[in-house]
Amino acid sequence: MIAVENLHKHFGGFHAVDGASLSIGDGTITGLIGPNGAGKTTLFNVIAGVLKPTSGRVSMAGEDITGLPPHELFHKGLLRTFQIAHEFSSMTVRENLMVVPGAQSGETLWNAWFRRALIAQEERMLVKKADEVLEFLTIDHLADEKAGNLSGGQKKLLELGRTMMVDARIVFLDEVGAGVNRTLLNTIGDAIQRLNVERGYTFCMIEHDMDFIGRLCDPVICMAEGKVLAEGTIAQIKANEAVIEAYLGTGLKNKVQSGAAS
């Protein structure tokens, strides 16, 4: 689905992404882990068109999408969520979903004046779709609540719901579990699995909760210092010497291993 080849993103002398190459298979839930500052979010931002790469190539289903802006990638089915949710706080949860699909009839002045019946019909369809999404995510009881009043976990569910309002092919999730209580995190995990199995969504997620990653993701990719350090199953990643060192440092790693041996 996605192929990243020798990707670089530099900010002056700082190489946030430094020659990363990886692939995200169609129909997978791929985990992306690594210590803070590893370049994970910058990599997401480059793939999703928020930042232009210094060099390298990104392709989607064989098509070169390097440097395309987010709105063009959106129409190709590539979407992303953010670590901090970006809801329209003064709008209801249902309305937050209804604004997602592009090219709505009510966006043109001509239709607003002369094709009100068409706009009303389209709005009824959007309400129906939004309510189906909210029911799928088990937050239909919040449909008329102001989005700004939701908890952090509920806002993450709302962001996931936005991806369901269009024909998403691949969704990049940036720390979907950050600041979310365990009950809601399980709900989010269930929704991701269902979207993957029942609707064929491909996911790539940045996450620090290794239990959550282990439950959902195969393969798991580890980054460090802007490069891909290792790739494999969660068990292989947890046992990888280079991964342990990247997270714990050489001294602490040796101390942990010494304690385990004794």
UniProtKB/TrEMBL annotation:
PANTHER family for this protein: CONSERVED COMPONENT OF ABC TRANSPORTER FOR NATURAL AMINO ACIDS, CONSERVED COMPONENT OF ABC TRANSPORTER FOR NATURAL AMINO ACIDS-RELATED
Pfam hit, one: ABC_tran
Record's keyword terms, sorted: ATP-binding, Nucleotide-binding, Transport
Organism listed in the record: Meridianimarinicoccus roseus
Residue ranges constituting the ABC transporter domain according to the UniProt record: 2-250
Signal sequence, start to end: none
GO CC aspect terms: plasma membrane
UniProt keyword Transport, yes or no: yes
Transmembrane segments: none
GO molecular function, one term: ATP binding
Keyword hit for ATP-binding: yes
Protein's name according to its UniProt entry: ABC transporter ATP-binding protein
